[in-house]
Write a structure and sequence with these properties.
This protein has four helices and seven strands. It is α+β, with helices and mostly antiparallel strands and about 180 residues long. The chain starts with a helix and ends in a 9-residue tail after the last helix.
Length: about 180
């Protein structure tokens, strides 16, 4: 189910509850009533997402990136960890070396993109996403298996974009790696 579908279902349920409550709402104009239902819908979505975050945090507390090498130079550290809004089956992790995307509920699939292979990063938000403070981050890389990945419905996309941008620059600097563009 997409976010828009969930939003539509919750909004329909709120309208249904209002109708079944037999409340006298004749004093409110239609626009005010619609604004109220929209507000209740957005609040319900945010509450559901925060509950998903809490339950996901408990299950992720045992999952950590471990490195057998004790050398600090090659130790991988987590810079950001998150998941798409209202998602139970996908996790995003940005480390100082790679972007790791894990998907699946029972079986797990892992995608990795090394930061030094990343060429371009963009982020975008629709109006509805701006209201919910979520957005998409598009990453284009030289990775042959995943030339373009999209981190969908990320909380605080501007902040995550900046974390990723700085991590890519640091990884390039650390590995003495640079791109030469032809014009």
């Amino acid at each position: 189910m997409t976010i828009k579908e969930a939003q539509a279902r919750i909004k329909a349920r709120v309208w249904q509850s209002v109708a079944q409550a037999n409340l006298d709402l004749s004093a409110l104009d239609k626009e005010t009533l619609e604004s109220f239902v929209d507000l209740v819908t957005e609040s319900a979505l945010l509450e559901i997402d925060s509950e998903l975050d809490a339950s996901k945090l408990e299950s992720l507390s045992s999952d950590t990136l471990e490195d057998d090498d004790d050398n600090d130079e090659f130790k991988e550290s987590i810079l950001w960890q998150g998941r798409p809004f209202l998602s139970l089956v996908m996790d995003y992790t940005i480390t100082n070396e790679r972007i790791k995307i894990t998907s699946g509920l029972l079986g797990k699939a892992h995608e990795n993109v090394e930061l030094i292979r990343i060429q371009d990063i963009d982020h975008s938000q629709t109006f509805g996403e701006r209201v919910l403070k979520i957005g998409d981050i598009t990453v284009r890389s030289h990775d042959p298996s995943h030339p373009e990945i999209v981190l969908r419905n990320v909380q605080d996309p501007n902040g995550v974009y900046e974390i990723l941008r700085r991590a890519v620059l640091e990884a390039r600097k650390r590995h003495n790696f640079s791109y030469r563009e032809e014009m």
